[in-house]
Amino acid sequence: MTAMLAGTVEFVIGVDTHRDSHTAAIVQAATGGVVDQLTVATDAFGYRKLQAFADQ
């Protein structure tokens, strides 16, 4: 699966969701290495931070 994905995209974003917080990680598709991660509260400010994180 990783080989197919790596041929299509450079990075993948995964999100672990919970009631009070969400943690997102940017992973390099070719290696599976975590490039960056962020944990935010599940409120409007947190959602905006997640959007900005994904946009980078």
Please describe what this structure looks like.
The mean pLDDT is 92. This protein has 56 residues and is an alpha+beta fold. It has helices at residues 2-6, 44-55, and strands spanning 11-17, 21-28, 34-41. It has a three-stranded antiparallel sheet, covered by helices on one side. The two termini are 25 Å apart. The radius of gyration is 12 Å and the shape is elongated.
Give the arrangement of secondary structure elements.
Elements: H1 2-6, E1 11-17, E2 21-28, E3 34-41, H2 44-55
Antiparallel strand pairs: 1-2, 2-3
Which labels suit this protein?
three-stranded antiparallel sheet; 30% helix; alpha+beta; 56 residues
Brief description of this entry?
This protein is of the alpha+beta class and 56 residues long. The chain has two helices and three strands, in the order H-E-E-E-H. Strand 1 (11-17) and strand 2 form a beta hairpin.
Helix content: 25-40%
How are the strands ordered across the major sheet? 1-2-3
- Rounded mean pLDDT is 92
Given the C-alpha coordinates, what overall shape results? Answer: elongated
Order of helices and strands: HEEEH
Taking Cα atoms only, what radius of gyration do you get, to the nearest Å?
12 Å
